[in-house]
Amino acid sequence: MESVLVKHPTGITKGRIKLEGSKSISNRVLIIRALSDDDFSIENLGASDDTEIMTNLLQQKDASVYDAGHAGTCYRFMTAYLALQKGEQVLTGSERMKERPIGPLVDALRTLGVTIEYLENDGYPPLKIGEVNPDQYNRNVEISGSVSSQYLSALLMIAPKLPHGLCLHIQDSLVSRPYLEMTLRIMEEFGVKHEWKDDMTIDVQHQTYQAKPFIVESDWSAASYYFSIAALSKESDISLEGLFETSLQGDSAIVDIANSFGVVAAYGNGIWRLTKDDSLRKDLYEYDFIKEPDLAQTVAVMAAGTGIYSIFTGLETLKIKETDRIKALQNELGKFQVYLSKLPSKFSPRSDEEFYAVNGTVTAEAEIEIETYKDHRMAMAFAPIGLLQGLSILKPKVVSKSYAGYWKDLEQLGFELTFSNE
């Protein structure tokens, strides 16, 4: 089985990293370009597998079957996009994709008059997607916001192209709200206006996307691993290129989060510079990841590496990602005598939410082998532990889903990587 042994000889990290374009922004802009009447250029497009899959799917003209593979974002966005195309198309994916729910988005599209069939199990891919039937079209759509904001983003991006637009009524709580706001702000960049009727209702009228060149900001989710590296280093001076001072991406919250783990982030001349100040470290850290779930693995490892007792909430959506990320974290952190434990409700600060505690400090007598569960973020989140001790990460190529150049970039910071194919 393929693996990479990750070590760092000095624990001191210094270097300059040019980050790849944001997967989240890239995929949204690709859909918007496909929905626009005119073509436009996209600069710094992400190099991830997900973005490559999205690009390839959108270039398949008049195809009858589309395969999104493992790419969950692509699957959700393409489900809505294909509903605007002529005829019928089948949208499928990997075996794991067939276990990831799509029902709320399908129900919403059916309200809009789209004919959709489940080809295997109700509520899950693959799908046969037909056209919008004007006689069954209802612009008022109710959808839960508690499962995935990508359902909402998928609907909003096609809204301007619908005969009378869309009025989206969000039910329950709204997870990953920054990703929804990112979608709306990118739509605004291309001239599409929206109106919040109240805190949970968004109205988008029928209108036209205005083509214009676009520069994709680099990926803050990818940047988060360097904040973890800075936190776990003895000394650190890392410069990150391609990130904006004011970002569309919710994962830019890592700037404030990492400060509690001793990381100082300063912006100037287009560069974020990360240095270390252990005097800033908290004894106890608490955070709600409901808006930035993709940061949870990074911060869990940061907490484990620094030994800072941490309490997390807002982890609900982690169970339906590439893997059950809560179980995966529990399994792999446990190998270092660090425990991610669900707190009993009577000890939780708010009884209606699930709270988890990260307790312990990374320690092991031998090199630990880390399973990645076909999840790119498991590989990238655990790699910084190589600053503290050697560890072997299985199936390291999984990082290509979102950050193909990750291992090469780690080598620029002095990490020693030994790849094996045993």
Provide a descriptive summary of the structure in words.
The chain has two domains: about 1-20 and about 220-420, UDP-n-acetylglucosamine1-carboxyvinyl-transferase, Chain; about 25-215, Alpha-beta prism (UDP-n-acetylglucosamine1-carboxyvinyl-transferase, Chain), CATH 3.65.10.10. Helix content is about 30%, strand content about 25%. The protein contains twelve helices and 22 strands. The chain has helices at about 25-35, 50-60, 70-80, 105-110, 150-160, 175-190, 220-230, 255-260, 295-305, 325-335, 375-380, 405-410; strands spanning about 1-5, 10-20, 40-45, 65, 90, 115-120, 125-130, 140-145, 165-170, 195-200, 200-205, 215, 235-240, 265-270, 270-275, 285-290, 310-315, 340, 355-360, 370, 390-395, 415-420. A hairpin with a 2-residue loop joins β10 (about 195-200) and β11. α4 packs parallel to α5 and α9 (about 295-305) packs parallel to α11 (about 375-380). The longest helix is centred in the N-terminal third of the chain and has 13 residues, at about 25-35.
Main sheet attributes: strand count, strand direction, barrel closure: 4 strands, mixed
Q: What share of the residues does DSSP label as strand, in percent?
A: 15-25%
Percent of residues in helices: 25-40%
CATH topology of the largest domain: UDP-n-acetylglucosamine1-carboxyvinyl-transferase, Chain
Given the C-alpha coordinates, what overall shape results? globular
SS field, number of helical segments: 12
Q: What is the mean predicted local confidence, pLDDT?
A: 94
Topology:
Blueprint: E1 2-7, E2 12-18, H1 23-35, E3 42-43, H2 49-59, E4 65-67, H3 72-82, E5 89-92, H4 103-111, E6 114-118, E7 127-132, E8 140-144, H5 149-158, E9 166-171, H6 177-189, E10 195-198, E11 201-204, E12 214-215, H7 220-232, E13 235-241, H8 254-259, E14 263-268, E15 271-276, E16 284-288, H9 296-306, E17 309-313, H10 325-334, E18 339-342, E19 356-359, E20 368-370, H11 376-382, E21 391-394, H12 406-412, E22 416-421
Parallel strand pairs: 2-13, 3-12, 4-5, 8-9, 16-17, 20-21
Antiparallel strand pairs: 1-21, 1-22, 5-7, 6-7, 9-11, 10-11, 13-15, 14-15, 17-19, 18-19
